[in-house]
Structure formats: C-alpha cells, structure tokens
Amino acid sequence: MGAPALEDAPSGRSGAVLSESCKILQLERYSAWSTDTHTRPRPRTLAQPSPAFSPAEKLVLTPQESGGFMRKALLVVILAGASAFAGTVSGSLSFSNTPLLRPEGESEPAVAVANDGTVAVTGLQWLFNPSFFGTHFWTGPFGATPTFQGLLDSGLRQPGKIVFGSGDADFDIGSNNTLHATTLMFFINPTFRTAQIGVSAVICPNVTSASFTLQNCTRHFVDRTESDRDWITSDGPHVYLSYHDSGFSSLIHVQRSDNDGFTWHRVGDPIVGQDGITAGSTFNNIQGPIVADPVTHNVYDIFASGQTGFLKGRTFTPNHVFVSRSTDAGKHWTASLVFQLPPPAKFDNVFPALAVDSTNGNLYAVFSEGHHVFFSMSSDQGVHWSPAVVVNVAPATTAIFPWIAAHAGTVDVVYYATPAASKNDASAVWNVYLAQTADNGASFAQSVVSNTSNHMGVICTNGTGCAPGTRNLLDLFKVAINPVDGRAAVIYTDDTLTKDTAGNPLPQIVLAAQQ
Questions:
Q1: Which residue among 16, 110, 161, 293 has its CA within the 20 to 30 Å range from the CA of 419?
Q2: Each residue of 351-375: b (16+ CB within 10 Å) or e?
Q3: pLDDT tens digits, residue range 292-318?
Q4: Measured CA angle at 424 (ends 168, 308), to 5 deg
Q5: Cα gap 110→511, rounded to integer Å
Q6: Which residues are within 8 A (CB) of 217 and not within 5 positions of it... i.e. 6 or more apart?
Q7: Which residues of 393-415 are buried (b: 16+ CB within 10 A; e: fewer)?
Q8: Do you find a cis peptide bond into 350, omega within 30 degrees of 0?
Q9: pTM given for the model
C-alpha cells in the first residue's frame, strides 16, 4: 500500500489530524491488505457444536492434521467458545498496578527486564505535539515507579523532510546491559500531505546505571524505504532487526549488526526460498517478533500467513502460523508449521508472539483467532511443535492480543480478555490476564492482572477500518520476566483513566508488577 494522504486519514487517536495519521500511515501494512478494510467479507455464522463433542473436553489439535470432519468439528467447538482447556485453573498471582500517566497519552507499550532487575518501558505517544513527539521511555527498579527519561527516537533528521518517531517500537536489553531499540520513523513532506516510513536503530549503553540518560544514545536510520512493524533482538554483540517491506511484497527483511547495533547489513529473509510457504506468505502475512537464542545462537521469526489461490489477492486469511529458523546468523532460513486452522479462522488478533527460554533453548508460541489464545512449544529448536492447546478460560471467554515471556522453566502468557462472546460486543468489559505454566503447557493457572477494567466496548483489529474509540489499545502489549526472582512485569494500555480536552478517552499505559 502506498502512503495515504494525511488529510484523508480516518480519525482514531484524539487530537490533531497528524497524531492519528502518524499511526494510520502504517497500521495495516503488516498485513498487506490491498483492498479497503471496510469491504472485507464478514465471517460466516458457525453452526452449533456437534453433540459428539462435549463442552468439557480438552481441546488439542495437532499441526499435522489435515482437513476432514474431526478437524472441522473441533474448530466449531473452539469458535463457539464452548470450552477452553481443562488444564487451565484459576490462579492466585497478585499484581500492583502503576499508571504511567502522561499529558500526551500512550498506547502499544513494551517492557523488558535486565539481568539486575532494572525495568525499561516504551510507549507510543498519542496526542501530537510538534515540539515533543516520539517514543516515550522509562527506566527503574522492578516494583518501583519508573522514571520518565524522555523521547527515545528524537534527533533523527532527513533532508527536506519533517521527521517524527513513535510509529512502532520494540527494544531489547543485551547481556552487557546495552539497550537495543528500533522505532518506525515518519518522513513527512513540508505540506503534511504524504509520508514515508523508515526504520531506526537506537543504541543506549548502561541502561541499568543510575546515571543512565538518553543523551548518551546513538541513533541512525537502518532503512528509509517503505517499511513497517519492526522488531529487535540480540545475542551478545550480534543484534537482529526485522521489519516488513510494506511497499511491494510484505516480505520480512532482516538486518544484522555484529558490533552491538552500531552498523547493519542485510541478511536472508525468513519467508524467501520456502516454496509453498513463500507463495502463501507474499502479500499475505503478519510478522511477529524476531527472537535470538543465546543457548543455540539460532535466530527465529514467527509469522501468520494465508494460502495461495484466487482469493489471496482479494481477502486476507492468515490461518497458518509458522516459525522460521536460521542456524547461520540470519543468512538462510527454514520455516516449520506450528499450527493451522481452515478458513474462516484467522490468526490476526493481532500478532503471533514467540519467546525462547534463555536457560534451556525451549521455544514457545502463542496466537489468537479472535476467541482463544493458543499455545505451542518446541524442544528441538523449532523443527517440531507440540499440539496446540487453548489457554484462556472463563471469565476470559474472548481473548486477543497475546504475548509471551519465558525464563528458567516458567512461561507467562498475557492477553486482553472479556466474558463477552465477541471482541465486537459493544457492552464488553475487558481486563488483562496472565496464564502461567511451569510444565511446558501441560497445565496453566490464569490470574487477573488489572485491578480495574482497562477498556469498555469493542476492540477492533481491522486497522484503518476501525471506528473511532475502538482501537485505542492499538496492536499489542507485553510481559517480561525478572531474571532475579522470576516475577512478571506486564505493561498494558488503559483508556478509562483520563480524557483529552474534547472529552474523548485518552489512552495511558499501566505497569503491573507481580507481588
């Protein structure tokens, strides 16, 4: 998709038109929809579950299953929300909830925890201010209110363009406590009518130091072409950055740095050279995070994709989840199927997520088809994946936006969830949940993270096709595990706390620390 004119961008973020446009310009490029989002086919109404399948059954589907009655019947049970996973029980974890209020508002936050327990947080600025606009950044000890440090991606310039950050953001804290961050940057022409999106890299030493300051960071552009949804990870001095080509193919590009993020060069692409997987993913995929494993030194990238055929150019049905693996520092990749469902199921709610346990090399993947969060794991470096199980249970009947973290055998899965039967229910009451497993998914304990509801009504995942107020939470939130004591830090968006000057909900981010 080409960059839309700023004046034509639909409303979403409150405030000046540009504040919405800065996000709207790239909201849907990760999925490469070439048609108007309002014209997508509506999901058909599913029949009631077959009496042959008890609502109390544990639902386990293998990635090797092909079409047929058994699979379709199980899909009907899942989509109808009749049962979840018998191995998930009510959990007893408790969390403190600390809003990180800013007058500009925040959404789509990220969190990481360093080896000494230092917590770092990013948030995308909501209201536009021409003298102060970018990705916000905080640091502080685990369990304390972090200190606002300022704009992570300020100071970058492009001749003849007005440059703003806070498009998308991701970051990683390396083993030497260097912060490796990436943000999407908007290159806007002086008439404010069109924009192009590029990828930046921000490198900050000693993020755990009490004297840490963003003034010591190094910032530069990695790619100035049409780009989208960037992710970053590191393994010692080797740093990997992935992002979409949003202009021509929606393929996933990967760049590698061998000097802790200061210089970069292109390596192989996780989708290219994968035969039918490549065909099904070109112009037809959602990219999740890239993950480096310090145990094996492999690099992994997760993505959801559709299937080839006539409808590929007219619909977007990412009903497959793949993890692509590189064993040679990103030069070559091999993709393996994690899970699939037949259409109309779509794993676009929103990103599939991936985590590696840095103590043993196990991989864990989560993804949602709009009702349930699925979980699968691999103990052989992503070659084979366990049968996918549904994690969420009532009252988290409808669960979306999954994310995952793993450390020392503990795996934490977070999601926004509601007792309502659909994310499109105008009366839905949403909360943040965390499901934890210590046995690779054989059992989970689900706990409530938020102390009050973080959103009321519809949560839309249709990008530019969303009505105002239904996309305040944007596309993701995250969880990280403190390696010092195994406690979870969850950063999420809440649009019930404050309002803008027009009386619209002003999203803010909340840091929840496990007690």
A1: 110
A2: bbbbbbbbeebbbbbbbbbbbbbbb
A3: 999 999 999 999 998 766 566 666 788
A4: 65
A5: 10
A6: 152, 179, 202, 203, 204
A7: bebbbbbbbbbbbbbeebbbbbb
A8: yes
A9: 0.85
